[in-house]
Specification:
single chain; alpha+beta; seven-stranded antiparallel sheet; 9 helices; elongated
């Protein structure tokens, strides 16, 4: 991939302040040509403001926006050559499907015969040819979203922007439309930036994810990068789910919790002091109390169809969520509330962060499995 393609869209130190509120702080990002980037984070994290600065609807207080080698920070939205699909669809209710798709082309004074050809092409693309003369109110939510997508694509946009495009759809339809958008984006090599707060939706659609929090970028990477190698405890809990346990590290592998419970970690780590341990529920191995791992007791057992979920209490107040598959033959044993159990996890499932939320890598010579410090939770199980 050439250097130009590597930075087709480039954000450099993008910032926005509303009064005393820093909505976006120093966001830098390079998007490759044909790539789908998803900005992901909780409400108020700055992802939509970032998208609207790219579109030109919000003026940045600082930083640069470069598209295909040209700075566009001072250009009005209609000169940026971008197609945008809004959360609310934003279709003209009094205009037919075909007229909605044609609108942007008419504003660009395209010849009438070319408009008709392009509208027909777009309706074929989104499989809405039979609905060309219908009004938006006679369409389903998914169909309206496809009209909005066709309208955005009709102008041959340099960049496609999607602002929570699936949030108004029900769960089943959301998955279907997500697949349709992803196929269209890939088949047409559309450089796309999408905003969502739904991590499952982001995981299914993105080439790379940008996790934001409080106006800043927490981590950029592929789904595997963020899931297997989270840069902060926030990413570990926001992408998928992680049990995050606070404690004090000593002796390289001894984590002492607030209630005095002491856990011997799988790996050995440099340094000492306050830190946080993150372990994903599906990486935890749950066994009977004589299993040789960390001792605890079951406080909740829930059958969820594809998985069985247990909550294991360690010591006086620390709970771990544990999930395992319910495959044919009962791959995961189901324990009852009150049962004494043991838990363990492999080194790869253990992520440790220091007091500044920086990851602590394990040193060599890790133990084969998690064990319990002898005067730790054993007495509380």
């Amino acid at each position: 991939m050439s250097g130009a393609e590597a930075g087709y869209l480039h954000l450099d130190g993008l910032s926005k302040q509303f009064g005393a509120t820093h909505a976006v702080q120093d966001v830098s990002l390079s998007v490759r040509r044909g790539e789908m980037i998803v900005l992901l984070g909780p409400s108020g994290c700055g992802k939509t403001t970032t998208l609207r600065m790219i579109a030109g609807f919000v003026e940045a207080n600082g930083g640069a926006i470069v598209l295909d080698g040209q700075s566009i920070g001072g250009q009005p939205p209609h000169l940026r050559g971008m197609g945008m699909v809004f959360q609310s669809y934003a279709l003209f209710p009094h205009m037919s499907v075909a007229a909605n798709v044609a609108f942007g082309l008419q504003m660009r004074r395209m010849p009438r015969n070319r408009i008709a050809e392009r509208v027909a092409e777009m309706l074929r693309l989104v499989k809405l040819e039979p609905f060309a003369e219908r009004l938006p109110r006679h369409l389903s939510g998914g169909q309206q979203q496809r009209v909005a997508l066709a309208r955005a694509l009709a102008i041959h946009p340099k960049l496609l922007l999607l602002d929570e495009p699936l949030s108004n759809l029900d769960a089943a339809l959301r998955q279907e439309v997500a697949r349709e958008i992803r196929i269209l984006q890939r088949d047409n090599a559309l450089t796309t930036v999408m905003v969502t707060h739904d991590q499952a939706e982001a995981m299914a659609m993105a080439d790379r994810l940008v996790v934001m929090r409080e106006g800043k970028v927490e981590q950029i990477g592929t789904q595997e990068d963020l899931y297997e190698r989270p840069a902060t405890p926030f990413v570990a809990t926001f992408i998928g789910h992680s049990n995050v346990v606070a404690g004090t590290l000593s002796d390289g592998s001894l984590l002492t919790l607030a209630d005095g419970t002491a856990l011997r970690l799988v790996g050995r780590y440099a340094g000492a002091g306050p830190c946080r341990l993150a372990v994903r529920p599906e990486r935890i191995i749950l066994a009977a109390a004589d299993g040789g791992g960390i001792r605890g007791r079951i406080t909740l057992s829930t059958y969820l169809g594809a998985t069985v979920e247990h909550v294991v209490r360690l010591g006086e107040e620390t709970d771990l969520v544990v999930r395992g598959p319910t495959l044919e033959g009962g791959a995961t044993r189901r324990f009852a509330v009150g049962d004494p159990v043991s838990v363990a996890w492999p080194l790869a499932g253990e992520k440790l962060f220091d007091n500044d939320d920086r990851p602590l890598p394990p040193q060599s010579g890790a133990q084969a499995e998690a064990t319990i410090w002898e005067n730790g939770v054993t007495n509380n199980a």
